[in-house]
Amino acid sequence: MKNAIEFRCIRENELGLLKDFLYEAIFIPKGVEPPSRDIVEKPELRVYTDGFGTKSGDNCLVAIHDGKIVGAVWTRIMNENDEEFIMVCEL
Known about the structure:
Elements: E1 6-9, H1 17-24, H2 43-46, E2 59-65, E3 68-75
Antiparallel strand pairs: 1-2, 2-3
């Protein structure tokens, strides 16, 4: 099928793409200057990509179209005991 999208687990040599997709996920309101791409190197964002794949709760699927990775979705389970745990909000 020509327009088919394939999904598969990310490969180790593709993990560097997570920073690119993290940058693309940043909400930028209309009329606001986009941040520099190095924003993903800030500690509060690096927790989502650094060492990805080394923890048991790390999972990632990539979407492939015409042989090219066009999207990614990943999860990382963090808890209060993790050194890099950041409380997003307190309800």
